[in-house]
Amino acid sequence: MLELLAPAGSPEAVTAAVQNGADAVYLGCGDFNARRRAKNFTPDDLAQAVAYCHVRGRKVYLTLNTLLSDRELPAALDLAAFANRIGVDAVLVQDLGLADALARRFPDLPLHGSTQMTVHSLDGARFCAQRGLTRVVLSRELSREAIAHICAESPVEVEVFVHGALCMCYSGQCFLSAMLGGRSGNRGLCAQPCRLPYDGEHPLSLKDASLAGHLRELEEMGVACVKIEGRMKRAEYVAIVTRVYAAALREGREPTAEELRALESAFSRSGFTQGYYLDQKGPAMFGVRAEGDAPDDLYAAARETYRRENPQVGVSLAAQIRAGQAATLEVDDGQGHIARAVGPAPEAARSRPATDEDVEAQLTKTGGTPYFVKRLSLTLDPGLALPKSALNALRREALDGLTAQRAQPPRRRALSAADPAPVPGPDGPPELIFSLRRADQLTPEVWTLPHRFLDLPAQVFAQSPHAVRAARGAGARLRVALPRICWDRERPRLMEHLAAAADLGAEAALVPTWDLLAAARSFPFALYGDFGLGAYNSATLAAMADLGFAGATASFELKLPMIRDLSKPLALEAIVYGRLPLMMLEQAPGGRARDSLTDRRNVTFPLLPAFGGRWELLNSQVLYLADKAQWKTLGLTAARLLFTDEAPGRCAAVAREYLAGGQPPKQFTRGLYFRDVE
């Protein structure tokens, strides 16, 4: 049966989820999770939540699913050590460096790949398995055919979001909030700029998803867990949504019309969408939350569902009431936990002796506890009496003993692991890499300038072989840039493009997500990691070196001093020019093609088409550092000039400015390199 995973942004939400039928809850503790603005949990709250859930046969997953700096990693590992001790059932991660550190230190603590890892293909699931993860949360953009394909061969469990908010951008690939307001979605503080108006519309605001009518289909295709989004939502919302999905799963049916109305009343943006799941993208998927009063009656009824205990753990009782012996009661949960209580010896009855019915009535009064009695085995000698108070005490003591056993954390290992020694980068200034987007940008003016690599998208090699041959013949060093997103159904076309790149002399590959690593490895390319891999700390760079990468691109959400202080076990590069890519979109904003979006401040953000019919939203201004010396002193091996919508002549001019010095254009940005990102 599918596991139902509910959100918990507060201790009250844990109670709401569990009492309404969730099999597991996911929650954050402190600042290392993707919903830092939720109430979240203190360590004491977390320990209480784990004990509460385990007593009731439910699981707790801790979200540590943000990118972490070198300074933050020790505190995150301390939190993970605490989670390991108290018995957290799994930890969700985005950061590969953190995942590797957790696997080395806490080998018995299961790790799940967060949707922030952008796992959207079978190769992505296989990569997670190779790194020791036991489950992956798939990207929300995938169709049912894509999910079924992954499930059919995935070496790890598959988890799918079935209800709640949809991000317009692929999770883990969004930089819009960080760039506009210094609050990063990769750091747990997304300000949701996608919900704001652009061009007088809301073309980045998707309706909430609801797959309530597809639960049996998901189970049949092999999905292990269905997940409800909403750690920023109220406990009442958690109760309502969890209750609907739990009832449908428990009874092997789809939700009723009344239940669907309750879901929509609890929260929706102009109704729900199944567009991604059904592979039916378009304008109908977009919507905004209508202003209106909170559903007070619905929420009041929801609170009643978790104000009292709803017994969910079946137990067996075995009572012995024999003449001349102390009364005993054993309680067994069928999961290896057996508690025993001993009471006073019964006396001879002076009037009415105790009957089986009398004793059973007292021993099975488990109201107010997590337990209900499935079976009672009773041995009662005739002619005896035992006060009700003694029977009640016997029951309470046995159940309390069982509760203590069920709350006991499992025994797990905690190993010491030394961090690798820091590796310095080169002393001199970095070489330049010219990252081009179009074939017409590949001109002699560019390829004759000193460079470490010329980056070209994979499709350019296949579509413009003559231009590539000319550059290669003139001595250009070529690196093929793989698309940031590539579904399994698109992989054959990508492999054709990569084969063309290899034939045309590309010597290296720029890998944008973990899903594309296997494709790049199919050819004799040197491997380089792009910014989408989230190289935010030294541990991630060490993990990439262990994977055979020759180099990596530092996250452009890092400040320059943070890049300088990174250990450099491989060639490190940073983007120092260009319109930074802010969002990777599965479909055009608002469901229709356009070349830009303009916000409320009349700032325009270009949109460019991407592989697979996707779109990429770019920053309104170009990052420019040619007039700054700091980027030359960070220990970088290379600095990348990221050309997107520039004319060919402008590409060459900018390249010369970075080689010899230049002045910024009228409108430009320093990016995030000189300001803090939360």
**Helix/strand structural class:** alpha/beta
- CATH homologous superfamily classification of the largest domain: Copper homeostasis (CutC) domain
Termini separation comes to: 40 Å
The CATH C-level name of the largest domain is Alpha Beta
Percentage of residues in DSSP E strands:
15-25%
Q: Using DSSP, what is the number of strands?
A: 30
Going across the biggest sheet, name each strand in turn.
1-2-3-4-5-6-7-9
The quaternary organization reads as: single chain
Helix content class = 25-40%
Describe this structure in words.
The longest helix has 20 residues, at 388-407. A hairpin with a 6-residue loop joins strand 11 and strand 12 (328-332). The protein folds into three domains: 3-166 and 206-304, TIM Barrel (Alpha-Beta Barrel); 314-407; 431-580 and 619-669, Alpha-Beta Barrel (TIM Barrel). The mean pLDDT is 95. With 678 residues, the chain is an alpha/beta fold. The strands form five sheets. Strands 1-2-3-4-5-6-7-9 form an eight-stranded parallel β-barrel, surrounded by six helices. An eight-stranded parallel β-barrel has the order 17-18-19-20-21-22-23-29. The protein contains 21 helices and 30 strands. The chain is elongated, with a radius of gyration of 29 Å. Helix 1 (11-19) packs parallel to helix 9 and helix 9 crosses helix 11.
